[in-house]
Write a structure and sequence with these properties.
heterodimer; A: about 200 residues; about 0% strand; extended; B: about 100 residues; 3 helices; elongated
């Protein structure tokens, strides 16, 4: 990705991220977060992680943020009225964030391996294809894509998920089921009268 | 050219913005959105490390698997968290964290 585009998407991501914190209306915050996540997805694409980028747009900017907006509208939350600002919290929070960023700058300024530009670590697709052929050519579709000079990102993610990470994938499936049941239990009304008794 | 440090700094700044939101804001839904932002910032550094450390000519897919699982768990977490917020709103009629003090002594 050319450098100007990188800075554009970083600016979109951080600018709208700051808008989430600064805007007082929760609906504007949620919509800013959608744009911020779109910028983040563009950065994923710039890192050749096409599947993660699509997932970010579909799951975060799509499903999760729509759920947030839905809840905000359902509760009919108006703009926050200006309350007395807790000065200790503001100063403490700002100091915490500044401390974190300074610490990060200190760590990264001494991190030599991070100075490598992206074109110094190119993807070697034909070498990867040759390695796959030598190892028995288990999934020929991926090898063919690599020999054609394209990165089959989604296929490689799927291969990793269903070979090396299949146990974790099933655990996540159980987790989603438990979360679904938990949401039903939590959001069920408690004050329902038991019917069919007495009277 | 764009270096690994550029991506890590962008990720760290996004994490910092999210942290500031969690500490400063008083609306529990906005706090929850800022938590999601912090999770995404961690995802960005994972993807960056995965791309900048190729194994066998391809990006290191172990990092992207972690991203996949974080996104899945975050989606489940959002569903449960918002259900809790709705239940809380139903009993207290507020989403302002300073009004929710039943656990403070």
């Amino acid at each position: 990705m050319p450098q100007p585009l990188f800075y554009l998407f970083v600016a979109v991501m951080l600018g709208f991220g700051a808008a989430v914190v600064l805007l007082r209306n929760p609906v504007s915050s949620a919509l800013s977060l959608v744009v911020s996540f779109a910028g983040l997805a563009a950065l994923y694409v710039s890192l050749n992680a096409y599947f993660a980028g699509v997932l970010q747009v579909l799951v975060y900017a799509g499903a999760v943020m729509v759920l947030f907006l839905f809840i905000i509208m359902l509760m009919d939350i108006r703009e926050e009225q200006r309350r007395r600002i807790n000065k200790v919290a503001v100063v403490g929070g700002a100091a915490l964030v500044v401390g974190f960023v300074v610490q990060l700058g200190g760590v990264l300024s001494g991190y030599e391996a991070g100075r490598k530009p992206l074109d110094r670590v190119p993807l070697q697709l034909s070498e990867a294809a040759a390695e796959r052929r030598a190892a028995g050519n288990v999934s020929p579709g991926i090898t063919a894509d690599l020999e054609r000079g394209t990165l089959p990102d989604t296929k490689l993610v799927g291969e990793a998920l269903f070979t090396r990470y299949h146990l974790q994938l099933q655990m996540v499936g159980v987790l989603l089921l438990v979360a679904t049941v938990g949401v039903i239990v939590i959001s069920r009304r408690e004050d329902r009268v038991v019917s069919g008794r007495g009277e | 050219m764009v270096t690994l440090n550029d991506y890590l700094i962008a990720s760290g700044l996004l994490f910092g913005i999210g942290l500031a939101g969690v500490v400063l804001r008083r609306n529990i839904i906005v706090i929850f959105m800022c938590l999601e932002m912090m999770l995404s910032a961690a995802n960005l550094s994972l993807v960056a490390f995965s791309r900048f450390r190729p194994t066998g000519g391809l990006p290191d897919y172990d990092g992207q698997m972690l991203v996949f699982f974080i996104i899945t768990v975050a989606a489940a977490e959002v569903a449960v968290g918002l259900a809790i917020i709705v239940a809380l709103f139903r009993t207290k009629r507020t989403v302002h964290v300073e009004d929710i003090t039943s656990l403070s002594g």
